[in-house]
Amino acid sequence: xxxxxxxxxxxxxxxxxxxxxxxxxxxxxxxxxxxxxxxxxxxxxxxxxxxxxxxxxxxxxxxxxxxxxxxxxxxxxxxxxxxxxxxxxxxxxxxxxxxxxxxxxxxxxxxxxxxxxxxxxxxxxxxxxxxxxxxxxxxxxxxxxxxxxxxxxxxxxxxxxxxxxxxxxxxxxxxxxxxxxxxxxxxxxxxxxxxxxxxxxxxxxxxxxxxxxxxxxxxxxxxxxxxxxxxxxxxxxxxxxxxxxxxxxxxxxxxxxxxxxxxxxxxxxxxxxxxxxxxxxxxxxxxxxxxxxxxxxxxx
Length: 300
Known about the structure:
mainly alpha
């Protein structure tokens, strides 16, 4: 089974929002402290809904709370890696790597867990990955592993691994929550209730990571730009809230993760347009391959 039209539409909207908040973050030299403010703002905003959703559920097993903590930690890894990569490189380099690798990694993980993907989906995911590896290149003859062997690419890889972690953890946690609620609340309410818990957990993890001297200084600086942090957090919350809702509508999380990669050409295109980042032919071809792969992945 592929992905329904409703779920695909939700993921496409989230892709626009995701590209938007990355653009905001990059424009202000982001730090883990900046994303800490953004995450906690979402968690605190949704806290009343979180508490109400939990009150409607039967007793949740310990595995749910472990998955929630694991998801928050993975989100921290993702945001921290993204912030450190953006401090060193353009969106055109960081964003494709951070967004491309999770496609095949999540697919491989779901296969190891016993799920089966059709060959069309595998081909689409391969096209997405190749396309995203082309995007950072200036010249076609530059394609060599050394192009990616540097600190900014390493932090982008860390962000990609974080994406894999929270995607799989969220799928498992939502299944536990769905069983505990037993239809007591609508799926959108459940999704956003869990979203608040996840962002709150991520914010606490990020806050713990900011306890060093440098982290505290960055935290004070981020509090000085509180409005931007809150706006970024709201965009982040809306982005992943739509994704969580889409996850509840599909049996295979790898489809959702793959379709989200439409944010790659959007993010790179916005960066070229609004931040005056350079555009190169390998980059344009890569975005075309990404779009072709997304179409293949979306086939039922």
